[in-house]
Design goal:
four-stranded antiparallel sheet
């Protein structure tokens, strides 16, 4: 079956390591590090069924102990993805978190996605250092 590219968007906060310095707050607080949106035009016959492929790359640094970095993606006020990464500040203090998520049959219209990080270990510290890249590609058909 033929697929139709409905929309594509990318948010490049920084393409390099040490391009940002964003402390990762302790849960339940979180910090939005990027946002991206796509438009699913209901007038396009291929708009349903659809899939929105979301990809993110996040450079992080463990600063104290072993932070557990939770990465969340939200759409329209609802969490649609989360994944946990444990860092080690002695052996693996710098790391890249890469993720791919597919939002199946997103509603028609503008869909806004938020990329959020938080630290689930209150005895540890971490920060986002870059790169930070968040993309969304809406595919119909």
């Amino acid at each position: 079956m033929v697929k139709t590219l409905l929309d594509y968007n990318a948010h490049v906060v920084t393409p390099i390591t040490n391009g940002v310095n964003i402390p990762i707050p302790i849960s339940p607080a979180g910090v939005q590090i990027a946002a991206v949106s796509v438009y699913i035009d209901p007038a396009v016959p291929a708009h349903f069924p659809n899939k929105v492929e979301l990809k993110a790359t996040i450079g992080v640094e463990a600063q104290l102990d072993t932070p557990n970095v939770l990465v969340r993606i939200w759409r329209a006020g609802s969490e649609i993805f989360y994944g946990l990464v444990e860092l080690e500040n002695v052996f693996n203090d710098w790391g890249l978190i890469s993720l791919t998520m597919v939002d199946i049959n997103a509603p028609a219209g503008t869909q806004n996605y938020q990329l959020i990080v938080e630290n689930q270990d209150n005895n540890a510290q971490a920060r986002v250092v870059g790169p930070v890249i968040f993309t969304a590609m809406a595919i119909g058909g």
